[in-house]
Amino acid sequence: MIFNVTDIQRHRHGGPTCKDGQVPHPARTRRFPPLLAAACLFLLVSGYFVVRFPDTPGADTASYFFNLLIALPAFVALVRQLGPARAAAALAAVSVFGYLIEGVGVATGFPYGDFSYGDPLGPKAFGLVPFLLPLSYVPLVIGTVAVFAGRWTALRTIAASAVLLVLVDGVLDPGAVSLRFWIWADGGPYYGVPLSNYAGWLLSGLCAAALLTLLGGRRLTRRPVRPGLLDSLLLSLSFWLGVSIFSALVFPAVLAAALLAFVVRHRIALAAAPTPAPAARHA
């Protein structure tokens, strides 16, 4: 008697398979995860307290806790996507790059412009860059790359990810300046941010996205992307949307809402994507 695994999968899922022989993943759904939605709402509301009570004792310590919570979903998803060794290498490489480019930026003004980090972000490596940088920057790189990885070529993924990172910083930087997380020496036309900052983000974004894409290899570019890779980006955007709203930063708030909708749509699509069915088997 001949059994086809596709028929078994069709029976198990209560419906037909996709045209290419793929079947829906039984644990995946088109619903947005309620826990993730609650976390996004919590971080949005927390923006109010960060804006209204910026000098709360222990705020710099709390920033480590919040950044770690925001970063964990992307870090865990990257380990599941790439495997522990490759994920550790990718995280280390992007983290070191982040420290280097930010350190050079603070010390020389290249490529962002003349700026320095404020005290709210806590102690700094060599007095230049906050130690928590990997917790805030690396998840943004992971999320923006994950939006495009697996669907586009590596070069297109890198370029698109860098552009998306610039847009994300269009939300992040005005809010951070209003909270004095960092200070621009000469200000700038965009909510106190110089336009050179965004040229710098494009350059650094290209490098960071290239590092992650190259180290991720085929496990990132040729394999279905895990939805969890986008979660830290969503959490971060939710927080900065709250900061923008409660700081009356109108355009950054609108941009944050648009980016959230864009990333949520991609996450739902990834969660609903079918997985390849096993090859037909005879008995």
Automatic annotation (TrEMBL):
The chain crosses the membrane at residues 32-50, 62-79, 91-113, 125-150, 162-183, 195-216, 237-264. Keywords: Membrane, Transmembrane, Transmembrane helix. InterPro entries: CruF-like. Pfam families: Caroten_synth (PF04240). The keyword Iron does not apply. It comes from Arthrobacter crusticola. This is Carotenoid biosynthesis protein. It comes from the Bacteria.
